[in-house]
Design a protein that fits this description.
about 325 residues, 7-stranded parallel sheet, alpha/beta, two-stranded parallel ribbon, Rossmann fold
């Protein structure tokens, strides 16, 4: 039985990945800050600790077949607000994690990068993994820096790694209060009847992918033994923010009030991923229809709104 360790396992993608890996028959260990939905973690081995606690981190990854590195700032604005030294913390601790790999602590590293930010401004067409990478935000720069160090450690020390450049994931356990994506925010504003702050004119195009498809791709990266190292993971289809507002309104059966505000310089106009490599090398394609993903997310948000206090007590 494969042993998996998810660093950041209590977060949005980490929790979904833990549930998926556990259902697939693997042994799952999670490491990170306390999970707000602890009762939903399907593992008995959830270890609480900070990423920069090297001793606890080393104990968590020791003997694992695959380590999933999901740690990073929650959102683009969060990354910009960090002081320079804080921005370097994830990179410095990632290098310590790579030292553990070099000493044989674990076999493979799967790193969650950002297909939505590392490429920067594109020509609007689906962007492939070998396209130029010129991020225009600190979040993307940080992800790309880690990617480059993974390559260096592979060349010099034989690190076995894979990179998932994920577009804009959404789904259950995505928390609007943490700034984790526009879909969760739209749904919650719509259900609560509050006003959504629309940044820009709504024409920004993004590649939205349900988290259920993302975790399948991550598991396959953990198993994949081909030559490719970097994979775009998305839907391959772009939708404007205005379109998404309309789709969410249809899903929840309510209109969403918007407050139009100035756009942000850190947002590229269009980002859509070419997922051909994942199709051909991993045998992976997105299978969850967008409408179904929105419905699942809305059902979860609705339950959280009505049962939030009970859930928080259970999670503590």
């Amino acid at each position: 039985m494969a042993v998996h360790c998810i660093i950041g396992g209590g977060g949005f993608i980490g929790l979904n990945l833990a549930r998926h890996l556990s259902a697939s028959g693997g042994f799952v260990r999670t490491y990170g800050r306390p999970c707000p939905f602890r009762a939903d973690l399907p593992v008995g081995d959830h270890r609480v600790g900070e990423f920069d606690d090297t001793g606890r981190l080393a104990a968590a990854v020791e003997g694992c077949d695959v380590v999933y590195h999901l740690i990073g700032p929650t959102s683009l604005p969060d990354a910009e607000r960090l002081e320079t030294g804080q921005r370097d913390t994830v990179l410095r601790q990632t290098l310590r994690l790579l030292d553990l790999a070099r000493r044989g602590a674990f076999r493979r590293l799967v790193f969650l990068s950002s297909g939505g930010t590392v490429y920067g401004v594109t020509d609007g067409r689906p962007v492939a993994e070998d396209a130029p990478q010129w991020p225009i935000c600190s979040y993307g720069v940080g992800k790309l820096a880690i990617e480059r160090h993974l390559h260096v450690h592979h060349v010099l020390h034989g690190l076995d790694y894979r990179i998932a450049r994920v577009s804009n994931p959404f789904g259950p356990y995505q928390r609007r209060a943490k700034g984790q994506g526009v879909v969760a925010a739209l749904i919650e504003h719509g259900l609560r009847g509050t006003t959504f702050p629309l940044l820009g004119d709504g024409r920004i195009v993004r590649d939205y992918v349900p988290v259920g498809d993302v975790v399948v791709a991550l598991r396959r990266l953990g198993d994949y033994d081909g030559e490719a190292r970097v994979f775009n993971i998305g839907s391959g289809t772009g939708r404007s923010l205005t379109d998404m507002i309309g789709l969410v309104e249809q899903t929840i059966g309510r209109p969403i009030a918007v407050d139009r505000r100035a756009g942000r310089a850190l947002d590229v106009p269009v980002n859509v991923l070419d997922i051909g490599r994942a199709r051909s090398q991993l045998g992976w394609s997105p299978e969850v229809p967008l409408e179904d993903g929105l419905r699942l997310t809305a059902d979860w948000v609705r339950a959280e709104i009505s049962e939030g206090p009970v859930r928080e007590q259970a999670a503590g």
